[in-house]
Design a protein that fits this description.
Elements lengths: L5 H12 L30 E7 L10 E10 L4 E8 L5 E8 L4 E8 L4 E9 L2 E6 L7 E8 L5 E8 L7 E10 L2
Antiparallel strand pairs: 1-2, 1-10, 2-3, 3-4, 4-5, 5-6, 6-7, 7-8, 8-9, 9-10
Amino acid sequence: MGILPLAVLAPALMTLARPVPLPPPVPPQHPPEPCAAAEHRQFDFWIGEWDWFDTRLAGPENGSMYGVTKVEKMNNGCVLVASYSPWSLARSTVVTHYDRQVRRWWMVWLGADGGREDYEGEFSNGKLVMTGVPRAGAALLRMTWFRGSEGSVRHMGEKSSDGGKTWSPIFDYTYWPRR
């Protein structure tokens, strides 16, 4: 067998030397946001900065303001953090989240006095209802949050000394958007 002339070999080599086009890049696949489901957004009406009033004392017009509350969504939208700055009480922070595994809302209240209170509950009919025992030996506490009038949020508390058979109101707050 003989040697091929360069004139025959060159076009074949040029064909091999051409760049081969690469496939288009594949966009990165992002996993779904862990807390993007509608259940995680049920309590979003609580997000914002609020002036905090005792509803029973008729609200802003009579100076019954307790303080300021700031509620933020954090940790990829998985957690609501509320910071309470009352005028006459110690500051506190409340962490709330929806647990999709058990389909329940959980809340932990952390006080400036080192206290901790745990609550759990569910969102139904436009209301978040949480229940827990605030301190050892105390009565059962049930708290309810819902949208109020004119952009406000209502937060009502009831206690039960008989394991939840009967309830008595203990507070009724209205939170108005800060202006």
